[in-house]
Amino acid sequence: MAIDPTPLPESAPSWFTPKRLLVFFCAINMLNYIDRGAISTNGVNGSPRTCTESNVCSDGSGIQGDFDLSNFKDGILASAFMVGLLIASPIFASLAKSINPFRLIGVGLSVWTLAVVGCGFSVDFWSITICRMLVGVGEASYIGLAAPLIVENAPVSQRTVWLGIFHMSIPIGVALGDIYGGLVGTGLGWRYAFFGEAILMLPFAILGFVMKPLQMKGMSNAKIIPWFLNEEFSKKDSSYVSYTSNQLSRFWQDMKALLSEKVYVVNVLGYIVYNFVFGVYSYWGPKVGYNIYQVDNVDLLFGGIVTVGGIVGTIGGSVILDRINSTIPNAFKGPVNLVCLHSVKPSLRPLSMAISTVSIHIFGDVPSPPLFGILQDKVDNWRTSILILTSILFLAAGIWFIGIFLHSVDRYEEDSEHLGTRIEQPDMTPLLESDVANGDITSALL
């Protein structure tokens, strides 16, 4: 197909500035991880039913008590979201090449909102597990798009800091989830914690459908999408099978290119091991703390520790990297997501973030909570189990240390590939580019 060389009009959305873009992504990411933190708390997750030798049994509390879950089944609830994330992430990343990314985010967050409502109405282990699977669709809709859009619209000298602020919403979200789940779950009941999350996320789902579009670097402006999304498709090519085949072919080509980047692969391997450990911390942390130290307000205490650690570690590492020069070898010493963005060409960035996220979950924090549950069932000593787990962090450090010495090429400024025909979408430009072109950089940052 011919490429229309006509440049896009240089007009920015009237309300959506770079800082508001950052706030939007931080907010939805934080809510996603508030949910992740809340389901792990003693107030929401609860405690299992127990029986003494004289057959005197307690009812337990929370989800684990109401549904009579073993530690293994309880650990599955922490991992179930991965099903939706695994299936939906590559789909959203591929569609972002031809569909307004904010519409995709709106769809994903709508599914997320309905899924957490379903968690509140669940009646047994399988019903809540299915709803937890659908929660992963929400994360899949934005995780591959957020980082590229944030970095492209951030001031050049502050790209790492802005990306750090976005990823800081993960530990803060988990920490707030610990506090939120402890308070709401204990005070009103675990079901109301999910209902509250749905109310908070709903405005962002609606915002995804009404936002003006932005264009990501390296993405085609074409809307070569199925007939039910584009009326022109049926006029030019009536074969839906042909479209699907082309999309799959492009996906596999992108995957081959992605996996050929050794720097990217090593970075993700280290991230997997790291996430394996912290997946257990985030889910079992409050329960481990309570059983070891017998502290009643462990949900609040654990949330406070995670908040402080997340802010100091994430922002501190980002500021240092901006000061010492944001090279790939330097990034291996801390902000791993920067490596994912800079080690691949622009057109692969959404896919690189999506595959990174899928990988760290499916091989990291998805299997680790139930495996830790099995370990604890065998060892029957919380302190010993958590020490065994923590020792695995040495492996993650070793893998990233190797990455420092790999030959690397920073591909951030590489020319993008534009596939297909162009369709008029006057507002689809990076925010800072539009405002700089109009001589209004100050307003873009406010």
Structure class:
mainly alpha
Low-confidence segments, given as residue ranges, are 1-13, 221-237, 416-429, 434-446
What shape does the CA trace take?
Answer: globular
SSE order = HHHHHHHHHHHHHHHHHHHH
> What's the pLDDT, averaged over the residues?
76
Number of strands: 0
* Binned strand content: under 5%
Query: Helical element count?
Result: 20
Q: Mind describing the biggest β-sheet?
A: none
How far do the termini sit from each other? 40 Å
Classify the helix fraction into a percent range. 55-70%
Gyration radius, rounded? 23 Å
Task: Explain what the structure shows.
- The protein has 446 residues and is mainly alpha-helical.
- It is built from 20 helices and no strands.
- The chain has helices at 18-38, 62-66, 71-79, 81-95, 101-121, 125-153, 159-187, 190-210, 231-236, 240-259, 262-293, 298-324, 328-331, 336-342, 349-365, 368-379, 382-390, 393-404, 431-437, 441-444.
- Helix 5 packs antiparallel against helix 6 (125-153) and helix 16 (368-379) crosses helix 17.
- The model is unreliable at 1-13, 221-237, 416-429 and 434-446 (pLDDT under 50).
